[in-house]
Design a protein that fits this description.
- The chain folds into 3 domains: 295 residues, 2-Layer Sandwich (Beta-Lactamase), CATH 3.30.450.20; 67 residues, Helicase, Ruva Protein, domain 3, CATH 1.10.8; 127 residues, Heat Shock Protein 90, CATH 3.30.565.10.
- Helices cover 52% and strands 19% of the residues.
- The protein is built from 18 helices and 17 strands.
- It has a 5-stranded mixed β-sheet with strand order 2-1-5-4-3. Strands 7-6-10-9-8 form a 5-stranded antiparallel β-sheet, sandwiched between helices. A 5-stranded mixed β-sheet has the order 12-14-15-17-16.
- Strand 14 and strand 15 form a beta hairpin.
- It starts with a helix and ends in a 12-residue tail after the last strand.
Amino acid sequence: MNFFYKIKGYVINMKMRKKLILIYTISAVIPIITLGIVMTSSMKNMVINRAVTEANTNNDRIKYRFGELFKLMSEVSDRLYTDEKLQKVATTRYTIPWQVVEAYENYKEFDSLLRSYKEIKSIRFYADNDTLLDNSQIIGTTSEIKSKKWYQVAIAKRGRSYWQYVYDELNGGKNLCLTKYIKDLRGNPVGVLVIYVDNQYLQSIIKEEPFETIITLDKDKILISNNKNKNKKINIRYLENSAAENSQTIYNGRRYRLISENFADSQADNAFQVMTMLRVDVITASVNQVGLLGVCIIIFSIILAAVLIVIFSSAFTRRILLLRGEMDRVVSGDLEVKDRGIKRDDEIGILFQDLDYMIISIKQLIHEVYEEKIYKEQIKNKQKEIEFKMLASQINPHFLYNTLETIRMEAHYNGQYKIAEVVKSLGKMLRRNLEVSYKLVTLKSEIELLNNYLYIQKFRMEDRVSYDIQIDFDIDKYYVLPLLLQPIVENAVVHGLENKSHGGKIVLKIERKDKFLRILIRDNGAGMTKMKLYELREKLYSAEHSVEGKSIGLINVHNRIKLYYGERYGLKILSKYMEGTQVYIYLPVKGDEGVKYIGS
């Protein structure tokens, strides 16, 4: 206890400068080092877990793609299993070759399936009928074919589907195929059906995978792999055992974390496996970067704490000067006064409190003035709403839409299908424009409106104009103000491409850029001179512009965006004479998720 009191007395009697140094050393350096260690460790675990989670997600996506393939192949095989025309072609005893040729020409089911499904490379039927002529689809069985292992396995399965990985003797190379032994309704054998899966389609399933991925059949046949080292043979058994242990392993001189999942076709007696190989050195590289960042943060924090110690240790002797400095800031218009060690119970502290009370009063007065300004701005917004509503409600939308629908039906009835489609698009576009509500709409509906408009313009201008819409994320639940895009696209067609004889193009691109949702509308039309572009920008960024007539142009769109979303958002226009114009629309990166009324 005496030692404690001695330490306490020593600290109490220390000079203020030494006290501040001691306090900041204990309260800054030690917590910062501890925080840095904890943060680095947490980030390391997070990166590793994220890689494993991503791999599991990718495996689920691969299994889903294979599930769709299984479903398709099952439907095709069942369809051919009950195909009486196929059974008739395969079992008929022909007397002359011409009869076989005629039967083949009349049977088009295989060709129809190949045209319909890109997943299928080829379909073959092996029939035990020596009167058949061989072609690329229906083949008579020979003793050589019957001796093949895949043929014997298909027979042994007695009508159940079975996946095999066999060599395609007609096209060359090994292929995954579904085999099935087919019998007629009386149980008599007809032949063996073989449906080959397209290798390019299989490869596309794992083409974009970020990690090394292997798909196997029955755990001993590699179907596809995106392993970059194609020349080295893959030891499936070794990898399977390592994955089962759920630990890291050394393979080809590198350390891997293996993730393996089994899946199967419910209609077949096979097992498939997807195996993902995560290179530990690649994952560790990013973790090391995080660790290095943590060390830098710790060093920076310690240096910052040392600087703060020096600053605050001398603050007590400079309180008068600091108070004067805060008062000067208030005079210059900065009302965010900070307590830099001034506030105490002495006379200087009282003066600082009085200054603080005065600033509170000034802020309150400014707040009242600001509320008054907001109220006036709301009145302006309401006026804009009324003006916009009046523009959108001039025509009875039901009468116009019903009239266009009558025209479309008449054109369709008379065989003018293209005209009918154009009238249908026009009806959708006008109905949307004329019946526009005063609620926010989805960005997807705005894009559908543009599709209808551009389809009509392409029909009108034929090959003189084309368009391309590029969207890199889901816009179904992104809500925006109505009629933001069409006026700009319409302006690009009328003023940019109308006089272009050929090669006109409009590109619409929607992307997230920094803290904005950016919509680009670009045309390769007439463009603008520097003077005309300057004048347009002057009008666009000036204080007020009213909407004239029935048009809702660039200025109206720009003002509506600023009034609803704020001053940070709006339009940006770039243009070069005879090269084209680019209009950028900047909106908040996160759209309103609920349907709201404009101005609410």
